[in-house]
Amino acid sequence: MGQLDNKTALITGGTSGIGLATAHRFIDEGAHVFITGRRQAELDSAVAALGERATGIRGDVAELDDLDQVFAAVTAYGQGLDVLFVNAGGGVFATLEELTPGGFDDTFGVNVRGTVFTVQKALAVLNDGASVVVTGSTAASKGNPAFGVYAASKAALRSFTRTWAAELAGRSIRVNAIAPGPTATPGLSGLAPDPSQAQGLLDMLAGNVPLGRLGHPDEIANAVLFLASDQASFITGTELFADGGEVQL
Question: Which of 95, 170, 175, 246 is the most buried (most CB within 10 A)?
Fold first, then answer.
């Protein structure tokens, strides 16, 4: 018996990193998993790795027409959604002096607008008693230089999590946030201005974690599974830090 037997899940941004690791974990626990991604080749590769209980849907969460296509496919499957993991995100990293309007709009467009309207459009297919998990960040609890807009976008998601938990409680839909610390993903390495600087960046980030290392995507996936499953049946509106103690210690 798996923790998600006969459940249906949707993971946005599910082609790599935390999203892909969580898709594997959900499938291992018995779920059928829809994943989204913006690039078809990466989406096809992820679905091939996940196997027959995975369905890929190409789409950009910042585009409302793409979201409509995503939820049309989920609706056509006919089982509703038991788990929604709103994981797609990203952003530009710049100091206040360096920030451009385009960078601001891109970051809030994906992280905030994309998340808000993903959850809104999911309302029609979320089954009563479903679980919604939103990807936040430890950055929202800190004041790191050049992370201002990214951190603010994740802080906005923390606020929305509380509000949605209150609004959806009548349907027994739980809404929680997961706040990963620095995690060894392609996206994290990609923050380095130059590929030759990537290892130095990763070493610096690991040095800020009390456990002395980066997280692994599977470790974050385990925390998401907890929030998604009945193991967390009395937990809603919270933010779970999976950060090696980075924010707490």
Answer: 175
For the question of residue 150 being annotated catalytic, the response is yes
Q: Which of 108, 150, 160, 164 is catalytic?
A: 150
Q: Is residue 207 part of a domain?
A: yes
Round to whole Å and give the CA distance between 66 and 43. 15
Q: Which residues contact 42 (CB under 8 A, 6 or more apart)?
A: 15, 16
pLDDT digits (tens, 9 = 90+) for 203-226: 888 899 999 999 999 999 999 999
Provide the whole-model pTM.
Answer: 0.96
> 169-197, pLDDT tens digit by residue?
999 999 999 999 999 887 776 666 567 77
- Identify the pLDDT of residue 246: 95
Phi, psi (degrees; rounded to nearest 5) at 36: -120, 155
Q: Are residues 235 and 190 in the same domain?
A: no
Of 175, 168, 131, residue with least CA distance to 3: 131
What Å distances lie between residue 224 and 18, 119, 163, CA to CA? 10, 17, 20
Answer yes or no: is 248 within a domain: no
- Phi, psi dihedral angles at 102 (to 5 degrees): -65, -40
